[in-house]
Amino acid sequence: MNNLLKMVSAGSSSQNSLFRVVAIATTVGSGLLYASRSSDADSKTRILLSIPAPLCKSLSLPWQRLQSFISHSSFDSDLSNFGNLGFFSSRVSPAPPGDMKKEAPVNDKDGTKSCCGCLGKDTIANAAARVGPAVVNLSVPQGFYGISTGKSIGSGTIIDADGTILTCAHVVVDFQGMRASCKGKVDVTLQDGRTFEGTLLNADLHSDIAIVKINSKTPLPTAKLGSSSKLRPGDWVVAMGCPLSLQNTITAGIVSCVDRKSSDLGLGGMRREYLQTDCAINAGNSGGPLVNTDGEIVGVNIMKVLAADGLSFAVPIDSVAKIIEHFKKSGRVIRPWLGSKMLDLNELIIAQLKERDPSFPNVKRGVLVPMVTPGSPADRAGFHPGDVVIEFDGHPVESIKEIIEIMGDRIGQPLNIVVQRANDKLVTLTVIPEETNPYM
Question: Taking the model in full, what pTM does it have?
Answer without folding.
Answer: 0.68
